[in-house]
Design a protein that fits this description.
The chain has about 190 residues and is an alpha/beta fold. Helices cover about 20% and strands about 30% of the residues. A hairpin with a 5-residue loop joins strand 16 and strand 17.
Length: about 190
């Protein structure tokens, strides 16, 4: 008896998943969710108008005017809010679970809806690393060559070439980059 309808579709989808998963494990020694097996993250970045070489996972949410520079990696389960304008530079690494905002609804909520949401452009400069599960608040500028430690809440500007961490984020030190590409964080 042949399988028809929804059962056949499920079986075919499982077979496709198994085939794609086996290929991913063989090529890259990874196991990914089905949507990341089906969709190309570089193609998604191109469709969003991001610069050459940028990539963004299917699980990421993108709202409003978001501009991303070349060769920037945006990890899975991220949120990029460009409703007030968001610019991310080239050669950045935005780790899994990062949320970057360009608006907030604090005044709207406290006023019972009489005040409008506040929108302010947010910017992350070139060559920045934003650690997993960090939150960048609206209106913040993260300067070029900076590091934001994992689980940080950044609610003030970050000077270029510095490392910050914590909630709220505080200065940890300066980022020093050697000619060979190695780096260190020097406590100031």
């Amino acid at each position: 008896m042949a399988t028809t309808g929804p059962d056949r579709t499920k079986r075919e989808l499982r077979e496709l998943h198994d085939e794609l998963a086996a290929e991913m494990r063989a090529r890259f020694d990874r196991d990914l969710p089905f949507d990341d097996l089906l969709f190309d993250r570089w193609e998604r970045a191109r469709q969003l108008g991001f610069a050459e070489g940028a990539s963004i996972y299917q699980s990421s949410h993108v709202y409003g005017d978001v501009r991303v520079g070349r060769d920037t990696w945006i990890g899975p389960f991220t949120l990029l809010d460009g409703s007030g304008g968001l610019e991310i530079g080239a050669w950045c690494s935005i780790a899994a679970g990062v949320q970057v905002y360009s608006h907030d609804t604090v005044a709207w909520a406290l006023s019972g809806g009489t005040a409008a949401p506040v929108r302010t452009s947010t910017k992350i400069g070139d060559r920045c690393y934003i650690g997993s599960l960090s939150i960048i608040a609206r209106g913040v500028t993260v300067g070029a060559g900076s590091v934001v430690a994992a689980h940080s809440f950044v609610n003030a500007d970050v000077a270029p070439g510095t490392a910050v961490g914590g909630a709220p984020a505080r200065l940890l030190g300066s980022v020093r980059l050697a000619d060979d590409g190695t780096y260190s964080i020097v406590r100031d």
